[in-house]
Write a structure and sequence with these properties.
Bound molecules: ligand V0D
Mean pLDDT: 91
Shape: globular
Structural class: alpha/beta
Helix content: 40-55%
Number of helices: 7
Distance between the termini: 30 Å
Low-confidence stretches: 1-9
CATH class: Alpha Beta
CATH topology: Undecaprenyl pyrophosphate synthetase
Number of domains: 1
CATH superfamily: Decaprenyl diphosphate synthase-like
Order of helices and strands: EHHEHEHEHHEEH
Number of strands: 6
CATH architecture: 3-Layer(aba) Sandwich
Strand content: 5-15%
Radius of gyration: 19 Å
Largest sheet: 6 strands, parallel
Strand order of the largest sheet: 3-4-2-1-5-6
Length: 253
């Protein structure tokens, strides 16, 4: 383990000289249900525990200078879960923001959403809108929640918008490039993730940021999201820096 022998614990002391902190880190917050099951607790207890992890990781990412933290909170497939669980999940943004928003504001963090919030319950939408409004003038780390998000849906949405532009004669087919296409994604204008972290032992992308992950370094761990600590985050960053050192100087393209 990379953390072994590090008496100081996570912190800038472990930074490899001259190596950069990833600008954009994406995380699939997976393993809450399994964590609860292992403890004979209801699944919602796992989501609560996951929220405590979220709080700590947001703080740590901000502390070490990550510019964008993208979190997979609720996928378009999650609607298939038991209704009681979906209802509970829909109240989590409210709960999270009620507890965290003052701190996010104090820390100059910007809240953003990618996905289709229009299909969410009105109360959930209201909580999210408040968070967006109250942090939109902030200039620090971007906290990007993927909510009711699906990567393929995002791409189809972008294609439809582009087609409509062509239909109206505002755009010609020849003008469509990768660069232009990217602007029509929910994440339009953000740099692609440098590092994707997926806990809980699943080795898949699961329809998260399909276009944006093309060149992203992937980092997996068996640790379940509620057990995920800042030490794990730090280890992922360190591994990212080691990969950078290995491939550094040689163009990836
Ligand atoms: C449950 C662990 C914050 C993962 C974290 C319904 C699963 C806690 C938000 C949130 C969830 C979303 C939007 C926003 C502010 C906060 C959240 C969901 C689940 C999906 F603007 N935690 N959280 N959203 N969990």
């Amino acid at each position: 383990m990379t953390m072994a022998g590090n008496k100081r614990g996570p912190g800038p002391g472990r930074l490899i000289a001259g190596k950069k902190i990833p600008r954009h880190v994406a995380i699939i917050m997976d393993g809450n249900g399994r964590w609860a099951k292992k403890r004979y607790l209801p699944r919602i207890a796992g989501h609560r525990a996951g929220m405590r992890t979220l709080r700590k990781i947001v703080d740590f990412a901000n502390e070490i200078g990550v510019e964008i933290l993208s979190l997979y909170a609720f996928s378009t497939e999650n609607w298939k879960r038991p209704p009681g669980e979906v209802e509970f999940l829909m109240r989590l943004p409210e709960e999270y923001l009620y507890k965290e928003l003052p701190l996010l504001i104090e820390k100059n963090i910007v809240v953003r959403i990618i996905g289709e919030p229009a299909q969410l319950p009105a109360r959930t939408q209201k909580a999210i809108k408040t968070a967006l409004d109250k942090t939109q003038k902030n200039t620090g780390m971007i906290l990007n929640f993927a909510f009711n998000y699906g990567g393929r849906t995002e791409i189809v949405h972008a294609v439809k918008t582009l087609c409509a532009e062509v239909g109206r004669g505002r755009l010609s087919v020849d003008e469509i490039t990768e660069n232009l296409f990217e602007k029509y994604l929910y994440s339009g204008g953000m740099p692609d993730p440098d590092l994707l972290i997926r806990p809980s032992g699943e080795l898949r992308i699961s329809n998260f940021l399909l276009w944006q992950l093309a060149y992203t370094e992937l980092w997996f761990t068996d640790v379940l999201w509620p057990d995920f600590k800042k030490e794990h985050f730090w280890e992922a960053v360190l591994d990212y820096q080691l990969r950078e050192r290995r491939f550094g100087g040689v163009s990836k393209f």
